[in-house]
Amino acid sequence: MAWIILVVAGLFEIGWAIGLKYTEGFTRLTPTVLTVASMVISIVLLGLAVRDLPVGSAYAVWTGIGTVGTALLGMYLFAEPATVIRLVCIALIVSGIGGLKFLA
């Protein structure tokens, strides 16, 4: 169950990271409220997950999910470059997340 909570926390991290773009420097109310809510939910869920998981692994997976999801959505939503090297680096992060989940 802790791993599921951690994955959901990572998804909320993606939400707040992408939400930052839509807040336009915290000048738009609705995106700002949703972004801050996503931040709080993400941190609370991470806190719940680390009750049962090693903090180092949980934090690495949480940030990895956030990093990969934000990078991919940045490419999709904001036309950020999807170069081969960038995609290879994202794949390495995914490999690390998998290693922490299944091997560590």
Automatic annotation (TrEMBL):
It comes from the Bacteria. One of its GO terms (biological process) is xenobiotic detoxification by transmembrane export across the plasma membrane. GO terms for molecular function: transmembrane transporter activity. Its main location: membrane. Keywords: Cell membrane, Membrane, Transmembrane, Transmembrane helix, Transport. It is found in: Cell membrane. The chain crosses the membrane at residues 33-50, 57-78, 84-103. It is a multi-pass membrane protein. Signal peptide: none annotated. GO terms for cellular component: plasma membrane. Belongs to the drug/metabolite transporter (DMT) superfamily. Small multidrug resistance (SMR) (TC 2.A.7.1) family. Gdx/SugE subfamily. This is Guanidinium exporter. It comes from Phyllobacterium zundukense.
